[in-house]
Amino acid sequence: MPEKICDLTTHSSDDPFAPRGFPQATLTLCRWQKWALIGAVVLLIAWGFADIHRELLVINTVLTVFYLASTLYRMLIIDLALSKPRDIQVTPEEMAQPPNGKEWPRYMVILPMYHEAEVLPGLIDSLSKLDYPKDRVEFRLLIEEDDEETMPVAKSMNLQPPFVITPIAKSYPRTKPKACNVAIETGEADYLVIYDAEDQPERDQLKKAVVAFSRCPPNVACIQAKLAYYNWDWNLLTRCFTAEYANWFGLCLPGLDCLQAPIPLGGTSNHFRLDVLRQVGGWDEFNVTEDCDLGLRLFSAGWRTRVLDSKTWEQACPVLRSWVNQRSRWVKGYIQTYLVHMRDFFGLHRKLGFWNSLQFHLLIGGSFLSQLINPFYWLMTILWLFVRPAGIDQYFPPLVFAMGAFCLFAGNFIFAYTCAIACVRQNVGHLAKYGLIMPAYWLMMSLGAWKGFLQLFHKPHHWEKTKHFANTSVT
Amino acid sequence: MDSPRSTPKQLNGKVAWAFFAVFAFVIYLLPMRPSAALSVHQSIVDALLAGNNWGRQALIGSFDYPALPSLALLISTILGDFVRLDGARLLQAIALAWTLCYFVRTAYYQHSYLTALLPPALLFALPQLRNAALTLDPGWIAAVPFAAIFYHLVCWHADKGLRDLVLAGVNCGFLAFCGPGPLIAGLILVAVLNAEHRRTTASLDSNVRDGIAPLLWAPILYCIALWLLWNWLVMDDIFFGLRDLWLRADNVRPEQLQQHLDSAIPLLLFCLAPILILMLKSDMRIIARCLLPTLIILSLASVISAALGANPASLLPLSAVAALSVFTLVAIAGFGHPVPRSCAIIAALCCAFYAVYNDQALPPDTHAAGAPAREELLAYIDQFWPDSRTVLYGLRLPALYPDPAEKRFIARLDYQEDAFLDQAKDEQLHILVPPPDGYFYPLAHSLLADLHANGRPWLFLEKQWPGNWQLWRCVIPPKGESRLEHLR
Fold it and tell me: Cβ separation of A432 and B166 shorter than 8 Å?
């Protein structure tokens, strides 16, 4: 049994909200959040009885201001991404030799997998092609002990170093971050990267990340590579999903990088300084978007994340049901993350400062809130367009109407148009037209968001596993 | 040797100074005279601020008094109230300063620092441009996206950056809300830009080329779709905004068109000469190719709009900016040889001299001269029908008798007989019908022209002024006011 270098799995504290010393999503709401929620609901009901019209007017005004702020914020980050691109570019010349001139640093690559037998051979193949000295890298396949589908296939492949099978003992919670924490408790390495089972990173990504780290100031603890989908042409869903990812990784994250804002990490292709990762406690095993939470925790602790111009090709979920499940997990995780970080309300805002706090609310809070309320506003828009019910005007006094009209007519176009721009920028320009039909896709996002939101109440830690398909199984 | 390129921070500082200098100059020093269009846009803004339905109708239901100038004037009026400045003047100052700043940025971008002084100098040296700049017109807001297009074209030409191409497309989209001429110019610009992009990237991988066409076309097509949607929402007719121009076009006489064409062609030809040289011999041929059809379209649109008797929405400012773009392009372009450079400069100078020589002030707008004064009209009505309200149809007519509170005048964009008759059951109404001279309404197939010629069985012609203005009174008695009611 290899010796543990750190302990990222034992609960060292009796505090149910921070069993490992930092706020975790063990419980959804802390005491004051519960009371605030109950108070808000009671207040809304009472106000509704007293003056429902005024209440709706105020709610509508608040939500319209929120929409406007989100739209303007999105415009800002997109423009920054286009005008002052800050994502790290590494040239082949820089990768010709190690940055320290001697040897390449040790890299640990962790690959959590569960029921991934189908894609395992492809994964091994793509990792074998990575351009990095094989004696300086270790590929850890994190397979659940009771995964009777993947484990036999992995064993039958008779993998040799640098590939190592790391069995994950059955314990609660059965989540990907728990497996990742187990994996990094042991072993020596300078850097660590996490990939998903179906990932196909660019061959030189590890070297690029090493050079990028060497060029960054010491407070950069994480470098996020860009994710893209190789199966964009499978169906309409994968096309829209690819356009959305192109927007997020091609424009939004580089824009956030420009603003030096907290960056919610993507699920894979995060390159870390391993010592820093261990120092901040690894991933929160109770959070279903542990990547987003970790990005924020790193930022709060003073560490910074940068974006690397190197792609990892992933598989876009091609089946609507699986896609909705995946989306529901993301939204549930974003809500968890938001609530966990808001527990220390004043501390968070003091630590982040005004501008970064605002970005935290717009980015994390705004992301799930907009997905949850979008269907109501779309419904209201459709009613306004086709039925024109009397009385709807009273909830839109001139200023609110002006802001609402801007969000409806300009904001929605901006969101869709930026997806199209991102497609062109990410060299998938043939998908630009799908970027323009994103409003239909947003409705499906809302479906997933509502599923995730409702699941938060009865299955907060349930991990909606994204099913991956071998290339031929769906086409 | 080129001087080192200004860093963005330094450039932004200089541009900000330029902006405030021009802004202060326009706001406080420039003697302005209002255009005929300003009164209409101002009436729309006043009506919008008063919550009057005609304001909403007029904002989107007219193609030649487009939405962007009215909206810009609305915002500047609200802002102007805060800073105690006239809204129209504030708008003009912002638009002029912003436009000139784009030329300053263009000059700095090309390291041609002295060229930064050329547009303001020309704007006040050439009579046509000076007249345009001194005319207080909300249509100047259209100059901003047009100047932005020119700036981003120059940047794209140099760097081939996606952002510049996208912003050029987005600014073309804004032109869709600036009237028919700018809309067509925007469409042509997008088409040429798309073609130029395809041509310049023909040898590259399709991954690099794909998707640009949707990016360029999407903003302008979306803006057109929005405008049609708004027409449907407010006017219940998706093509309502087009009808007035359509009916006017039915009635244009060729000799009218010829007359306007004759006066526009020489200046256009003089302007085209430097562009042709730029197209053939300069390193800025792509931008010249984009400007050439735009310039022709703007000139033709001016001619057609004059012949139609429509408002030349934003065409004057856009033509001024197009001319400034040509001169700036001559100044910043590289020719590789002194001969074509000299030819382009001479052609530009000829153009400037012709402009000075051919200084023709715009004829004053006399269409409203024969209209009865507001007081005279009300005094006449009050003799027999005190407090009767007068219905005014269209866009230009309500602007002559602004009454956002609808105390004595009711403004309607479209003539709807049923709505009028319903209203007449509740109160005594009059209708004021302007003369059929093609200014206030189209001559043919227009309901108002028919009303002027034939009246209606339930209308009584109370008075006709010498200028052919008619005041009709509705003879349907309001409920409870008929003296014959008890006989029924």
Answer: no
Q: CB A296: neighbour CB atoms within 10 A?
A: 24
Measure the CA–CA gap between A5 and A183, rounded to whole angstroms.
Answer: 11
Is there a contact between A420 and B208 if contact means CB atoms under 8 Å apart? no
pLDDT in tens, A336-362: 999 999 999 999 999 999 999 999 999
Per-domain residue ranges for chain B?
8-357, 374-487
Suggest the residue from A392, A407, A413, A418 to mutate for an interface test with chain B (most B CBs closer than 10 A).
A413
Tokens (6 digits) for B87: 């809204």
Contact A421 B210 (CB under 8 A): no
- Of A79, A385, A429, which is closest to B211 when you measure between CB atoms? A429
Statement: residue A375 has pLDDT above 90: yes
DSSP state string for A144-182: ETT-TTHHHHHHHTT--TTEEEEEE---SS--HHHHHHH
Chain A residues bordering chain B (beta-carbon distance below 8 Å): 79, 82-83, 385, 398, 409, 413, 417, 420-421, 423-425, 427-433, 436
The Cα–Cα gap between A112 and A44 comes to: 44
Per DSSP, B391 falls in state E
- B91: pLDDT strictly greater than 80: yes
Instruction: Count interface pairs A-B at CB distance under 8 A.
Output: 52
pLDDT exceeds cutoff 80 at B207:
no
Q: Is A353 left (phi over 0), alpha (psi -120 to 50) or beta?
A: left
> B-chain residues within 8 Å CB-CB of A417?
215, 218-219
Nearest to A82 among B162, B214, B218 (CB): B162
pLDDT at B313: 82
Q: Supply the ipTM of this predicted assembly.
A: 0.88
pLDDT tens-digit map of B469-483: 999 998 887 766 655
Burial of B123 (0-12, 13-18, 19+ CB in 10 A): buried
- Residue matched to tokens 């111009």: A309
Indicate the residue of A82, A385, A433 with minimum beta-carbon distance to B214: A433
Domains annotated for chain A, with CATH where assigned, are: 1-8+15-475 (3.90.550.10)
**So what's the pLDDT on residue A72?**
94
pLDDT in tens, A95-128: 999 988 889 999 999 999 888 888 888 889 889 9
